[in-house]
Amino acid sequence: MTLNEIFENYKTIAVYGMSKNKEKAAGYVPLYLKQHGYNIIPINPTTSEIDGMKSYSTLSEVPDKIQILNVFRPSELALQVVEEAIERKKNKGDIEVIWLQEGIINDKAKELAEKNGINFVQDKCMLKEFININITKAKS
Asked: Which residue in 1, 37, 66, 101 has the fewest CB atoms around it within 10 Å?
């Protein structure tokens, strides 16, 4: 699945580690995507709300269907996040894509996700990729 297909086909993004701080990528990246029509679901155990959106403490608490799990956690924690996502997929049948933000790389997590039928992107910024795809579309 291409990045373009991910952006076109999936509109609900749970953001694991979303920040209240709009100066941090974990704050402004999801807010930008929200402004461009994506449904953003914050996951952050330290707050109950981010920018007017209900924030959940854990991935398993999210009642809505999740299509993309966007991860803002250190590389060494990515495997644990993927394990949680796989457990959720088994129980709820959602999560089509796990996307580790730029600078976050975990090949064991990638292997595990793909083995469980989840598309996997790592070390790419959703904001940058979204903009690049839209610039390319505008030129063609």
From this structure: 37
Q: Is 33 exposed, middle or buried (0-12, 13-18, 19+ CB in 10 A)?
A: buried
CB within 8 Å of 135: residues ≥ 6 apart:
none
Prediction pTM value: 0.96
Q: Is the dihedral of CA 30, 56, 76, 122 positive or negative?
A: negative
3 state DSSP class of 20: coil
Write out pLDDT tens, residues 62-72.
999 999 999 99
Rg, C-alpha atoms of the chain: 14
Q: Which CATH superfamily is domain 3-139 in?
A: NAD(P)-binding Rossmann-like Domain (3.40.50.720)
